[in-house]
Amino acid sequence: MEDVLRPVAVIGGAVLLTLILVWLTDRALRRIDAAHPETPLWGLLRRCRIPLQVALCAALLHGSFGQAGLKSADKHAAGIGQALTLVLIAATAWLVIRAAAAIVESSYSRYAASGRDAARVRRVRTQVMLIQRVVTAVVIVVAAASMLLTFPAMRAVGTSMLASAGLLGIVAGIAAQSTLGNLFAGLQIAFGDMVRIGDTVVVDGEWGTVEEITLTSLTVRTWDERRITMPVSYFTGKPFENWSRGGAQMTGTVFFHLDHGAPVEKMRQRLLEILQECPEWDGRSWNLVVTDTTPSTIVVRALVTARDADTLWTVRCEVRERMLEWLQAEHAYALPRISTAPAPLGTPVLDRAQEPGAESARG
Fold first, then answer.
1. pLDDT band of 358, cuts 50, 70, 90
2. Share of the chain above pLDDT 90, in %
3. Domain spans in the chain, listed from the N-terminal domain onward
4. At a CB cut-off of 8 Å and minimum separation 6, what does 288 contact?
């Protein structure tokens, strides 16, 4: 009977103690979260319940498994202990990643709630996301190395590996030159404030918004919902347009090709009326001038402003549509025309054989 009750008591006690400790921890986090609504940290830490359960249960089983008295498992005690150690390392890494994500997300949420500068908020968001990815990568590498070192064979090879670490580092650096370049470029973008999540950029002639930045790549969402993914080293080695740097406000133009008799002064007044009725116009500036002339037309440029690139596109389309509608309704003569003249009646049509010089050409 003792051979049955003792293993059940040891293993069941470890599982029960794990559930009790995790329940108490979750209850304490819930009370702290209710008492401090100004920060979401304590509520986010509750996401660590599952990795905490696995890590705590693995630790308790690893420490008490030898007291269970399972004769059938004595032959595999080393293997079971090795498995529990691997589970404990993996669960601890999982727990650290979850906790780091909760701390980063809480810090960004508090900063975003109190920050009024949208550009600075986007910069902090880019930095904390890249920091979180770096922490995750480091934890995974350390956990994988720790799991490998638990095998005796790997510990024996460790000395020779350390002796040749310099040569392996040179070989790995040459083989992963592009990857390492993108990695350092990602860190340079995060802390150099070159481009941020939410910035409006133009790359390779494509206009879009930065949607995601990782350690090695950057994704741009275009206006037609396409995603362009490119290595982050592109932004450190080639020129690109960042319309959001220094502020999201933008100035745009609308060009009209009109007849020389177009009422420019009335168009200027009409432009102001259109902008005053357009809610997307930010009121900073506007203008309408003649910028060029040709033998048949003049070029009229309307200048408008808006708070960001998307709104500017809407303002330009609104001005173009309403101005053309007004010109067609009240000043149709201002639209460009092609002057033509009728051919004189009764003019004889010469045959090619009768054209002057035809004889000499044949001769």
1. very low
2. 15
3. 2-114, 182-242, 250-334
4. 264, 267, 268, 271, 300, 301, 302, 303
Domain 182-242 has CATH 1.10.3720.10: no
DSSP label at residue 334 = G
φ/ψ of 230, rounded to 5, equals: -140, 155
Round to whole Å and give the CA distance between 119 and 248: 8
**What are 318-336's pLDDT values in tens digits?**
999 999 999 999 999 888 8
State which CATH number among 3.10.580.10, 3.30.70.100, 3.30.230.10, 3.40.50.300 fits the domain covering 250-334: 3.30.70.100
Cα 63 from chain centre: 45
> For 203-259, how does the pLDDT look when each residue is reduced to its tens digit (9 = 90+)?
887 888 888 877 777 888 887 888 888 887 777 777 888 877 766 788 889 999 999
Distance CA 200, CA 157 (A): 51
CB 216 within 8 A of CB 182: yes
* Whether residue 299 has pLDDT greater than 60: yes
Confidence grade of residue 268 (pLDDT, cut at 50, 70, 90): very high
Give SS3 for 289. Answer: strand
DSSP-derived 3-state class of residue 197 = coil
DSSP three-state, residue 255: strand
Q: Do domains 182-242 and 250-334 have the same CATH topology?
A: no
- C-beta neighbour count of 228 within 10 angstroms: 15
| Calpha distance 126→244 (Å, rounded) | 14
Whole-angstrom distance, CA of residue 271 vs CA of residue 201: 29
- Residue 132 DSSP symbol: H
Is the pLDDT confidence value at 344 over 70?
no
Q: Looking at this protein, which amino acid is placed at residue 29? A: L
Q: Which residue has the higher pLDDT, 169 or 339?
A: 339
Asked if the model's pLDDT at residue 289 lies above 90, the reply is: yes
